[in-house]
Amino acid sequence: MRMAPLITSLQNSRLKLLAKLHDAKHRKREQRVLVDGQREILQALAGGVGIEELWFDPEKIDVDSWLEDVGSASVSSMQLQPATAEVLQRLQYGDRNEGMVAVAKVPRWNWEHLQINAKPLIVVLDGVEKPGNIGAVCRTAVAAGVNAIVLSDCRCEAFNPNAIRSSLGLLFRLPVITASAAEAIERLKDLRVQIYVARVQAAVSPYEANLHDAAAIVMGSEADGLGGPWLDSSLQGLRIPMDERVDSLNVSVSAAILMYEAVRQRTLRR
């Protein structure tokens, strides 16, 4: 680890450069993201994410004790950057002010990295436009033991800072693969995974489906639902039972219902 001199000036060139990571275009170009908050940084480290710089407020954080508690081998390559609270605020999101922000490489997952067990459970989010929903689904997916998240034709970044925050950093703890809808279907079929697509008009409820065996649960955006290749009649539709006064649920809620029905079935069969 390298300890850099304390930064006190808002005109610092490195600070100005990193502050640009608040912009999606800059994040995409640099393949870097700011991870704001101690819990989120710990999850990134546990997930093997490459953290290059750790910015912290020495008035708030005893960084030596913090690193000792972390005990991760990956911290040895980080640069430690003390900064004043005012400087650190330029890198933080919102008003959390936890006194720590990391600069991390964006994880680059692909199908080849996916370690599939005999009965995988995979969640596909198609065309989802809100990063907060991606983060919420990822948080539940880790809790439910899901093997991977697939973002098909996604309208926002997989590792958008709002997705990281809403997942409490758990976005870093499982493979998150981006693909087109057509590619996702082809790959899932190659893996011999039964594809279940959430459709309001489907005749089968999740309680009648076989989610005990290898399964992929596909959710569409709240605005448009599923379209394109996901409308193929060969794919099994699932309908979450709802009172007639309600025609839809938040995508993260729907995904949680389906994931935990899979957990229930798998627990009962053991």
What can you see in these coordinates?
This protein is an alpha/beta fold. The protein has 2 domains: 104 residues, 60s Ribosomal Protein L30, Chain: A (2-Layer Sandwich), CATH 3.30.1330; 159 residues, 3-Layer(aba) Sandwich (Alpha/beta knot), CATH 3.40.1280.10. Helix content is 31%, strand content 19%. It has 9 helices and 11 strands. Strands 8-7-6-10-9-11 form a 6-stranded parallel β-sheet, with helices on both faces. Strand 7, helix 7 and strand 8 form a beta-alpha-beta unit. Helix 6 runs parallel beside helix 9. The longest helix has 19 residues. The chain is elongated, with a radius of gyration of 21 Å.
List the helices and strands and how they pair.
Layout: E1 2-3, H1 13-19, H2 24-30, E2 32-36, H3 38-46, E3 51-56, H4 63-70, E4 79-82, H5 85-89, E5 100-105, E6 121-126, H6 131-143, E7 148-152, H7 161-166, E8 176-179, H8 181-190, E9 194-198, E10 215-219, E11 236-238, H9 251-269
Parallel strand pairs: 1-4, 3-4, 6-7, 6-10, 7-8, 9-10, 9-11
Antiparallel strand pairs: 2-5, 3-5
Helix pairs in contact: 6-9
Low-confidence stretches: none
CATH topology of the largest domain: Alpha/beta knot
Measured between the Cα atoms of the first and last residue, the distance is 46 Å
**Distinct helical segment count:** 9
Oligomer: single chain
As a percent range, the share of strand residues is 15-25%
> Which geometry do the CA atoms define?
elongated
Give the helix/strand class: alpha/beta
* Highest CATH level, the class of the largest domain: Alpha Beta
* Element-by-element helix/strand order: EHHEHEHEHEEHEHEHEEEH
Percentage of residues in helical conformation = 25-40%
Q: Give the mean pLDDT.
A: 91
Report the biggest beta sheet as strand number plus sense, adding barrel if it closes: 6 strands, parallel
State the CATH architecture of the largest domain: 3-Layer(aba) Sandwich
CATH homologous superfamily caption of the largest domain: SPOUT methyltransferase, trefoil knot domain
Taking all Cα atoms into account, the compactness measure Rg is: 21 Å
- How many strands in all? 11
State the strand order across the main sheet: 8-7-6-10-9-11
Number of domains: 2
